[in-house]
Amino acid sequence: KEGDITFKTVLPEAGKYKISFRYSNGNEQKENDLVVNDVQLSTVVFDATDEWKTISVNKVILNSGENTITIKKNWGWIYLDYIEVMPADADTPFTLAENLVTSSPSKEAKSLYEF
Question: Which of 97, 95, 100, 98 has the alpha carbon at shortest distance from 110?
Protein backbone atom coordinates (compact mmCIF):
# COMPACT_ATOMS: atom_id res chain seq x y z
CA LYS A 1 0.00 0.00 0.00
CA GLU A 2 1.38 3.40 -0.94
CA GLY A 3 2.04 6.05 1.70
CA ASP A 4 3.37 6.48 5.22
CA ILE A 5 3.33 3.83 7.92
CA THR A 6 3.20 4.56 11.65
CA PHE A 7 3.97 2.29 14.60
CA LYS A 8 3.40 2.94 18.28
CA THR A 9 5.59 1.43 20.96
CA VAL A 10 5.45 1.67 24.74
CA LEU A 11 8.81 1.66 26.54
CA PRO A 12 9.53 1.24 30.24
CA GLU A 13 12.18 3.97 30.32
CA ALA A 14 13.57 6.86 28.31
CA GLY A 15 16.91 6.35 26.61
CA LYS A 16 18.77 5.53 23.44
CA TYR A 17 17.26 2.79 21.30
CA LYS A 18 18.07 0.98 18.06
CA ILE A 19 15.20 0.85 15.56
CA SER A 20 15.48 -1.91 12.95
CA PHE A 21 13.37 -2.33 9.84
CA ARG A 22 13.08 -5.56 7.82
CA TYR A 23 12.33 -4.60 4.24
CA SER A 24 12.47 -5.48 0.57
CA ASN A 25 12.22 -3.00 -2.27
CA GLY A 26 12.96 -4.55 -5.61
CA ASN A 27 16.03 -3.55 -7.53
CA GLU A 28 16.39 0.16 -6.74
CA GLN A 29 17.67 2.11 -3.76
CA LYS A 30 14.88 3.96 -1.94
CA GLU A 31 14.89 6.83 0.56
CA ASN A 32 12.23 7.49 3.17
CA ASP A 33 12.09 9.78 6.19
CA LEU A 34 12.23 8.56 9.78
CA VAL A 35 9.88 10.59 11.99
CA VAL A 36 9.84 9.94 15.75
CA ASN A 37 7.26 11.60 17.98
CA ASP A 38 6.44 14.12 15.21
CA VAL A 39 10.10 15.11 14.70
CA GLN A 40 11.84 14.19 11.45
CA LEU A 41 15.17 12.66 12.48
CA SER A 42 16.73 11.55 9.23
CA THR A 43 16.33 10.16 5.77
CA VAL A 44 16.91 6.41 5.76
CA VAL A 45 18.50 4.89 2.66
CA PHE A 46 17.09 1.45 1.90
CA ASP A 47 19.59 -0.32 -0.37
CA ALA A 48 18.27 -2.22 -3.38
CA THR A 49 17.33 -5.82 -2.55
CA ASP A 50 15.01 -8.45 -3.96
CA GLU A 51 15.25 -10.35 -0.68
CA TRP A 52 14.39 -9.39 2.89
CA LYS A 53 17.07 -7.24 4.49
CA THR A 54 17.36 -5.48 7.86
CA ILE A 55 18.57 -1.91 8.32
CA SER A 56 19.01 -0.24 11.71
CA VAL A 57 19.15 3.29 13.03
CA ASN A 58 21.05 3.31 16.32
CA LYS A 59 20.91 5.67 19.28
CA VAL A 60 17.48 7.17 18.68
CA ILE A 61 16.31 8.92 21.85
CA LEU A 62 12.86 7.68 22.86
CA ASN A 63 10.62 8.62 25.78
CA SER A 64 9.33 6.42 28.54
CA GLY A 65 5.75 5.46 27.75
CA GLU A 66 4.26 5.70 24.27
CA ASN A 67 6.36 6.68 21.24
CA THR A 68 5.29 7.05 17.62
CA ILE A 69 7.64 5.92 14.84
CA THR A 70 6.76 6.78 11.24
CA ILE A 71 8.38 5.88 7.94
CA LYS A 72 7.25 8.80 5.80
CA LYS A 73 7.14 8.34 2.06
CA ASN A 74 9.91 10.29 0.41
CA TRP A 75 11.33 8.72 -2.73
CA GLY A 76 10.14 5.26 -3.53
CA TRP A 77 8.17 2.44 -2.05
CA ILE A 78 9.36 -0.40 0.16
CA TYR A 79 7.77 -3.58 1.46
CA LEU A 80 8.05 -3.46 5.25
CA ASP A 81 7.89 -6.78 7.10
CA TYR A 82 8.44 -5.61 10.68
CA ILE A 83 10.00 -3.01 12.95
CA GLU A 84 12.01 -3.84 16.08
CA VAL A 85 12.90 -1.45 18.91
CA MET A 86 15.73 -2.54 21.23
CA PRO A 87 18.07 -0.76 23.66
CA ALA A 88 20.91 0.88 21.70
CA ASP A 89 24.38 -0.54 21.51
CA ALA A 90 26.52 0.78 24.34
CA ASP A 91 28.71 3.79 23.66
CA THR A 92 32.33 2.85 23.11
CA PRO A 93 34.65 4.90 25.30
CA PHE A 94 37.27 6.86 23.41
CA THR A 95 40.75 7.23 24.87
CA LEU A 96 42.84 10.04 23.48
CA ALA A 97 46.58 9.39 23.16
CA GLU A 98 48.71 11.57 25.42
CA ASN A 99 50.81 12.80 22.49
CA LEU A 100 50.17 13.31 18.79
CA VAL A 101 51.01 10.19 16.81
CA THR A 102 52.22 12.10 13.75
CA SER A 103 55.99 12.55 13.92
CA SER A 104 55.92 16.05 12.37
CA PRO A 105 52.50 17.57 13.10
CA SER A 106 51.57 20.99 11.77
CA LYS A 107 51.49 23.99 14.09
CA GLU A 108 47.68 24.00 13.78
CA ALA A 109 47.43 20.33 14.76
CA LYS A 110 49.62 20.92 17.83
CA SER A 111 47.52 23.91 18.83
CA LEU A 112 44.26 21.99 18.43
CA TYR A 113 45.62 18.99 20.35
CA GLU A 114 46.71 21.19 23.26
CA PHE A 115 43.28 22.82 23.42
Answer: 100
Give the domain range for residue 40. 5-91
Tell me if 56 is assigned to some domain.
yes
- State the DSSP code for 58: E
How far apart, in Å, are the Cα atoms of 42 and each of 33, 50, 57, 73? Answer: 6, 24, 9, 12
Total-model pTM: 0.74
- Tell how strand 79-87 and strand 53-62 pair up: unpaired
- Taking the C-alpha atoms of residue 61 and residue 19, their distance in angstroms, rounded to an integer, is 10
In a domain, 47, yes or no: yes
Burial class (CB in 10 A: 0-12, 13-18, 19+), 73: middle
> Is position 101 within any domain?
no
Which pLDDT tens digit goes with each residue over 40-59?
999 999 999 999 999 999 99
Residue 93 — φ and ψ, nearest 5°?
Answer: -65, 145
SS3 33: strand
